[in-house]
Every structure is written in C-alpha cells, then in structure tokens.
Amino acid sequence: MSRSWLFPILLILLVLAFALSLALGSVRIPLDQVVRILLGGEGEKASWTTILFDFRLPKAITATLVGAALATAGLQMQTLFRNPLADPFILGISSGASLGVALVVLGIGVGGALTFVTGLSLFGNLTLALAASLGAGTVLGAVLLISQRVQNTLTLLVIGLMFGYLASAIVTLLIYFSQPERVQLFSLWASGSFGGVTWEQMRVFAPVALLGLFLGFVMIKPLNALLLGDDYARSLGLNVRRARFWIILSASLLAGVSTAFCGPIWFIGVAVPHVARSLLNTADHRLLLPACLLLGASFTLMADIIAQLPGSQRVLPLNVVMSLFGVPVILWIILRQRQLRQSFAA
Amino acid sequence: MLTTSFLTIGYPRQVLASNLNLKLRSGEMVCLIGPNGAGKSTLLRTLAGMLSPLAGEVLLDGQNLHRLPPLELAKRLAIVLTTRVEAGNLSAWTLVSLGRHPYTDWLGRLTARDQAAIRHAMELAGCLSLAERPIHELSDGERQKVMIARALAQEPKVLLLDEPTAFLDLPRRVELFQLLRRLSRETGVAILLSTHDLDLALRLADRMWLFAMNGDLLTGLPEELALSGALERVFATEGVYFDHAIGAFRVHQPVRGPVSLHTDSEGVVAAWTWRALERLGFAVQNGDVRLHLHVEVLTGGRWRLFSSEGESEHTSLESLLAALSEF
C-alpha cells in the first residue's frame, strides 16, 4: 500500500524547516519575533528586520526552491534512464555550468575583472550566474538535439556522460593553468551556497525554477507510462521522443538554474527520490513527485541550517554538510526498506 | 477487424515476409506459430504499429493503422510484450491503471469510469484478488495475468501477445490459454498470440497462422494445417517428425530393431511401455504379430520378455529395459 497519508507530515516538516532556517543563524531570532516581523510588525531589535528580509528570507526561499528542483530533476532522470544512480546532472548540465563559470573565473581576460571579487559577493555576481546558465544551456541544447535523433534512451545517457567528462576535462585544464587565488575562488563556487541570491536575482531564479517544477508536474503522466519501458509507453499512445524532450528540458531547467545561482549542489538529487520511494512505498509519480518536492526542500533547508553553525560566525561548505549529515540518514532509510533492487531490477 | 493487405514486413536490409493478406476477426483467438527467427515478433510489432511496414498496409476497422493518431490506436489495440516488465514498486492495481493512459486527463487522474474499467479488466483476467499486491512479489503466472489486465484496461478491440507463456510452467500455460480463449468469447476482443506451445495451440486456437522460415505464412484451422502436412513441413528438421495420429511431434532415435508389444488391458501402462521402448530406439509394433523380440504387458505391474534366448519376467520397467538393451 502506498502511504499518501504521509503528505501532511511532509508539509509540516517543510514549514518547520523553513521557520527554523529563518530563526537560526549567527544571530538567533525567536520564532514569535520571526512571525511578527514577517507579518509587518516591529521586532524587538530593528536589525532583525534587516537580517530577515535582506538575508534569511531570500536564502530560505532559494534553499526551498533548489531542494525541490534538484529532487524533482533527480526523480525524472532516475525514471527516464531506469537507473538508481542517475542524478540531475547526469546529462552534463552541471559540468556545462562549471565550464561556464570556470571560463569566467579562471579564464584569461574576462577573469581579470573578477580578481577583486570576494567570496561573499561571488555568488551574488550576475556575471557568474549568466556564465553558468550559458554553459548549462549549451550542454542542454546539445543533449536535447541529440535526444530527438537517438531511438534508445540509454545511448542518450552515455552521450550525456561523455559531455560531462569533456567539460570536466576542460575545467581541470583551466585549473591547471590558473593562479591559486582564482582556483580558490572557483572551488568556493563549486562548494555551493544559497546565500548569494538577492531579491534582484530572485526575479530571474524563482520564475525559471517554478517553470521547471510546473513542467515536472505536466510530465507526471508520461513518467508513469515510461515506468513500463519505452515499448509499452509507445503502445499506450505516448510520443516517447516528445515526452523525453520535455522531461529533459524540465530536469535541465531545474538543475541548470540551481547550479547557476547556487553552485553545483550534489547529493539531494540522487538521494531524495530514493527516500521518497521508501517512505511512500510506491513508484507512482503522482505521489513521488510532490513528495520529492517537499522532502527535497526540507532536506536542503536543514542542511543549510547546519552549515550555518547556528550561534557562530563560521559557515561550513554546503556540499560537505549535505554528505556528512545526509548520507547516514538516507542510508538508514533506504537500507531499512531493502527495495532498491525491486525498484530498479531492470 | 484487423486485416492486412499485401503487407511486407522486415527491416530495410532484410525482408522477412511479403504480400501478407491476413484477417483477424473479433471474438477469435489466433495462434501465431513458427520457428525462431521466422518473424513472429516482427509481424506482431508491425501489426501493433510499433514497426512500419516495408510495403502494403495494416487496416484496423478499415483505417490505416499506421496513420492513426497514437492515442486513438491505443484505445483500439493493446499489446503484451514478451519482455519481463520491471516497473519498480507498483501495486498490481496501479500497474493496470497505467492502461487507462489513453483515456485520462493531463495529470493521469482516474475517474469513476476509469476505476470501473480497471476493476473490470482485472476481473476478466482473474487477478482482482492481487490488486493490492506489489508486482515484484507476484509469480510469473500472476504477473502475466496482471499484464493482460493492463492491456484489457485499454479496452482494445484487438489484443496482441508476444509469447505470453514463455516463462510459465505447464499448468500456468494451460490456464493462460484458457483465459485468453474465454476472453475472446466473452468480450469479443480479437486475440493474436505468438507461441511455441504447438500442442496447446492445436487444441485451443480458433485459427493458426503458421510462419515458415522462407517467409510463407499459412493460415487455417489447426486441424487443416495438421492434415495438409503444413505443420510438418514448417517444423521438419533432422530427427523430428509429426505424428498425424496423435497430433504431436515425435523424436526419432536410431532404430535398433523391431519389437512387438502385446497387451490385454491397462492401456496406460501399455502406452508408457510403448514410449519407453521407443526411447530405447526400438521400432515398436502392435503385438498381434509376434516378432522374435516380443514384450507382453501383464497385470499387476509385470512384464514378460520373449527373445531368442528364452523368456524372462520383469517387475519393473527398468529391469525390462535393462534386459532389452542387450539386444
């Protein structure tokens, strides 16, 4: 039996994580004050209003959207490629984004203007977001073009992997020939952060992410048909090529926009779909996709709270926290269910 | 219902069969048989619209099947493929509900009408009791019924099945054949299945399509195909021949020599003794004429062997065969 009764709990979990991420940080703001300030009231301290509206709220919204986006994209890729290890970046999207950023940060000429960019404003830099988007978009375009020509979905997977390797190789080459401080700047970007998205950038980031999520919902029915494999999906009247196009477009928009604004965030995309399958005990995307959305957002918010080391001035790299704290939790959930094989026995 | 006119099937560089004029009528169960590689799967996939014909056309209700919009085709024709489906963690009910894909809205929501169709399909396929079970826990036979229910949920007029009995044991095969036959009778759906179960096909098919390696496709009643020698020709290979009397293939062995078998009663024991002697390589003849090697089936599980070296009595088939293998 699928456990759709879990949805209210997942929703409460998300609200809780969201509230905590607003309340916790280097300065602790009591929850009742958070609510009062959000509702337009005066906080006990004037600085709290600034902290909430200028920093924590956009950051929490970003983390929510990125978590939802990457978990959804991961689910789509795992089903499309019938592969439990598939993640949002499997088609080389993040490698493309990395290449774009690497070219700007490490590259000759353009990078010159960025040498004074500090770590904090690195993520707020629209040039970088643009470079990452361009890189991701180039790879996406190539993959979509090829997806319309190849019959076999697995071929597409291999081609995507190859794109990824190619981009990574160029990035490595760029790192090899770059000055240490620029390399450090690049690795800072590569470790991920939600802190750089300002309200200005939110106007680009949020609509694109929401568009990707909306496309994800539209593609739920085709994803379910694809559970039976391409042949059965066709026999059900599905235009497999067209469905594949839209699914890849949705997943790539989600992965691309997340990477462009927050750096490559690993782990969420591959792990959360498995947790959703375990918790809900089904492969039906009508339940899985909303669950991934909620779970992904909650996990990401919590990881970000931990990364902030509440009460201290230090911040841990996001990807490190994801793995250190996320892996044990997720291993426990998945091993307890022992159904990975059943879900991907093909 | 489903007809083909001058249909040529195969692949760009390999024509498997040409100028096929076939007719599949509603309420009829047709078995497609033939050796491996003759093109059974290719024909099925072409009829299902998954492969384009090289020439000619397939007509479904008088319309060119390959020009029908995919969703329209899915409402009229369903297929059960031979590949074992690994669809992940789904209940049988949810799997069958996927068959409603051509009918549901953009989110795949099931209306009361869809629910009723799913229930009906599972009832017809005899798997409603499995509805809540996850498919990876089902046996091969149960799983095949669920796959048939999924196809029926499309409410097709034509149902194609590619070797549906491939993974099943004998009782499950018989059950599946009977299920399909009942479906064709009760729902009027036209059923075409490819199979290697010649024996079951001969007994239960309304009609047989017989695929030969040279691309010929012979159609007719099973009995007609047997009598005309068509079956024999298609499957003829070294060491195998078709026994017209019993309607099954027999395996030739190098013949040792003639032996006569006499029996008074107990037809079953005689029949199996006959087979044992054949397996050993003897040319068995009816015991009315006594040959110099002669076996009599006695009552109470005993056999008597007469030979040039005298006579001996045996209390088991094994000892009889041991004695006979001396000759």
Give a structural overview.
The complex is a heterodimer of chains A (about 350) and B (about 325). Chain A has one domain (about 5-345): ABC transporter involved in vitamin B12 uptake, BtuC (Orthogonal Bundle), CATH 1.10.3470. Helix content of chain A is about 70%, strand content about 0%. Chain A contains 16 helices and no strands. In chain A, helix 1 packs parallel to helix 14 (about 285-305), helix 4 runs antiparallel to helix 6 (about 125-145) and helix 6 (about 125-145) packs antiparallel against helix 7. The two termini of chain A are about 20 Å apart. Mean pLDDT of chain A is about 85; it is low at about 110-120. In chain B, helix 4 packs across helix 5 (about 140-150). The interface of A and B includes residues 220, 224, 227, 238 and 282 of A.
User: What's the alpha carbon Rg of chain A, rounded to whole Å?
Assistant: 20 Å
User: What percent strand of chain A?
Assistant: under 5%
Name of the CATH first level of chain A = Mainly Alpha
What is the tally of helical segments of chain A?
A: 16
CATH topology heading of the largest domain in chain B: Rossmann fold
| Strand-pairing-aware structural class of chain A | mainly alpha
Strand content of chain B: 25-35%
- Based on secondary structure, the structural category of chain B is alpha/beta
Rg of chain B = 25 Å
Query: Low-confidence segments of chain A, ≥5 residues, pLDDT <50?
Result: 109-120
